Amino acid sequence: MANTSEPQVDSLKSNKTIIAGIVIIIVLLIAVVVLLLIRGNSKEKEVSEEPKRGVVVTNDNVEEVVQDMMDSQQKEIDHSDVAYYSATMNYEWKFPTGESPSSNAYVENNADNATDVYFDLFLADDEEEAIYESPIIPVGSSVSGFSLAKNLDAGRYNCVCVYHLVDGEQKTLSTLRVKVTVIIEQ
C-alpha cells in the first residue's frame, strides 16, 4: 500500500510545482507589461515636455531651415488671424417655398480670411436642430441657392447663423454668431 500512495504524492507535488511555475510566469509577464507601459508613458512625457531647440544652419541645410521657419511663421499667422473673420453675406434670406432653394441667400468666405469656414443655421428659439448645414466653404469661395433641411411654413423666422472657423483638419478653432431672417414666401 505504501507504494500506491507514493506515486499519488509525487503526482501532487509535480502538479503543485507546475501550477506554481505557471503562476510565477504569469506574474513575471504582468510585471514586464506594466514596466513597459510605465516606461512608454514616461518617454512620451519626456518627449512632449522637452522644449524645442534651435538648429545650426549650414550650407547643406539652409534651404530646409528657411522653409521650416516660413512654415512655422505661417502657422502662427494663421492662428493669430483667427481672431477676426469677415464674410460677405446678406441677412434676409428668401425662399419661394419651404422646400425650394433660396432666391437670394449668399455667404462668401472672403479671400482675406485665414481659414475655411462652415455654418449651421438654427431657428432662434431652437438651437439644437439645424435647419441648414453648409458644406466647408474654402477661403475665397461662396455658397448660395441652397435649400433648408427643414420644411418651414410661410412666414418670417428669426434665425441664428453659427459660423465655425476650421483648421486644415476641419476642427473648429473659433465660432461666430450672426442673426439672419429667413422668409418663406408661400
Report on the biggest sheet.
5 strands, mixed
In the sheet with the most strands, the strands line up as 2-8-7-4-5
Mean pLDDT: 78
CATH class group of the largest domain: Mainly Beta
The percent range for helix content is: 25-40%
Number of strands: 8
Task: Tell me the fraction of residues in β-strands, as a range.
Answer: 25-35%
- Architecture of the largest domain, according to CATH? Sandwich
> CATH topology of the largest domain, which one?
Immunoglobulin-like
Note the overall shape: elongated
The total domain count is 2
Protein topology:
Elements: H1 2-49, H2 62-80, E1 87-89, E2 92-95, E3 106-109, E4 116-123, E5 126-133, E6 142-144, E7 155-166, E8 172-184
Parallel strand pairs: 2-8
Antiparallel strand pairs: 1-3, 3-6, 4-5, 4-7, 7-8
